[in-house]
Amino acid sequence: MSRTCLTGQHDEHDVYGERCPCRLLLDLLANKWSALVIGLLEHGPVRFGALRDGLPGISSKMLTRTLRRLESAALITRTVYPDVPPRVEYELTELGVSVSVPLAQLRAWAEDNIDHITAVNPSWA
Predict the structure, then answer these.
(1) In percent, how much of the chain has pLDDT > 90?
(2) Which residues constitute the domain of residue 69?
(3) Domains identified in the chain, total number
(4) CA 94, CA 91: separation in Å to the nearest integer?
(5) Which UniProt keywords apply (predicted)?
(6) 122 within a domain of the structure (yes/no)
(7) Is residue 84 part of a domain?
């Protein structure tokens, strides 16, 4: 099933279509780091160091890459303050807030159901 694009840039979108640009967006949002960064930003602006500290296991390089991708998709903003040393904060845009709702549901579903999955397949533990 395809949907009419509200921006008028495309007639229709079909995420199952090989060349549909929606696939790039799904790839970004389905990435674990993107989903987790968006979750950390749900309560307001956060500095880079706090994001890194809130995401054990992520490298600074991967966090930077994830933030840049989210910013390029207009899901977050990056604000640089002229302090010494410079202070940078990241915040969800209105579009980012709108996607945070289904991503929060997905994160909650994962937490609620991981025990069922590991009971069937211990390699998920």
Answers:
(1) 74
(2) 10-116
(3) 1
(4) 10
(5) DNA-binding, Hydrolase, Transcription, Transcription regulation
(6) no
(7) yes
